[in-house]
Amino acid sequence: MGKPECSTCHRLIPDGLLACRDCTLDRSRAALFDYQRAPLRRVLEEGGELVVRHVGASRHVQMFGGYDFTFCTLRIPDTAHRTRVIVGSDAVKQLCADCQLEMARVLKAAYD
Ligand SMILES: [Zn+2]
Ligand SMILES: [Zn+2]
Prior knowledge:
alpha+beta, elongated, binds zinc ion, three-stranded antiparallel β-sheet, 2 helices
């Protein structure tokens, strides 16, 4: 009898797991980014604010919807300092480059 294999990536599913961990993570990541599209677009069009969290030495943009993740998918500790920046201001350019890249990618998808 063969071991269970993931129907998506064809890797073996580890004992005790019902689904392939890698694919589950990929799917929830994709869903998380899909969810960011509408609020990010709205904030951009209305000139709203982004929530900035200080994690490590950088300032990152927190995802919308109360998720404890930055756009570059770091988990945000509860204690991380919180500030806000206005979309389109120079302050945004000082933020984490990966966060800016991911936001641009999400927005591109929103307008495609
Ligand atoms: Zn898989
Ligand atoms: Zn970041």
